[in-house]
Amino acid sequence: MVKIVLAGVWACIVALVAVYFSVKLATAPPPVEESKAPPTEVVRGESITVPFLDNGAVKGYFIGRFSFMVDKQKAEGLQMPMTALTTDELFTLLVGNRMVDLSKSTKLDVEGFKQAIKTGINKRLGTDVINDVLIEQLDFLGKDDIREGGGGKPKLLPAVKIVEGQKPPESAAPAE
Q1: Where is the stretch described as Disordered (predicted)?
Q2: Where are the strands (E) in 55-129, listed by range?
């Protein structure tokens, strides 16, 4: 009889130890925190047309569309609409600072141009809201390329593509 009781106790101990270790191994490990990169969202800009001035006269127009990767948390506290701010910065770079000079045959430094937009906007806001600038379109249409068509309507020749654009993700929110 003692052998049967000892065999029962032994079976219970083995079963309890087996259940304990199976539950211990089956539970998921605590989640490892990934890099604490701020959540970003794409703010899609409007199409803009910026005049190219040379010696006080309009020589052509820059036609562009830019999107911005912004820090979602910092962008929520902005007082100024993102569209107005980005448009003003683009006018400043293209007209005021003449970052793109078409009288020279050099290519546009795309990375420098994007960095200048990012730095200028972040400087005005006083914080790093813009993480990246996406150029969807940047073309130049010279004044001589606009010809008078029949019936008083202008006939446009194809624009000169300055930068081959990149499309923002489909979940891009329109600019406010």
Answers
A1: 149-176
A2: 57-71
Greatest distance between any 2 Cα atoms in the chain: 115
Alpha carbon distances (Å) from 147 to 58, 74, 158, 159: 15, 46, 11, 13
Low-confidence ranges of the chain (pLDDT < 50): 105, 150
| 9-46 burial: b if 16+ Cβ within 10 Å, else e | eeeeeeeeeeeeeeeeeeeeeeeeeeeeeeebebbbbe
Residue 78 identity: L
Residue with tokens 């202008």: 154
For the chain, the structural domain boundaries read 40-174
Fold type of domain 40-174: Tetrahydropterin Synthase; Chain A (3.30.479)
Tokens for 5?
Answer: 């009781």
pLDDT the model gives residue 150: 47
Backbone angle region of 97, left / alpha / beta, with phi > 0 → left and psi within -120 to 50 → alpha: alpha
How many residues can be counted in the chain?
Answer: 176
How far lies 8's CA from each of 2, 17, 21, in Å? 10, 14, 20
Per-residue pLDDT, 105? 46
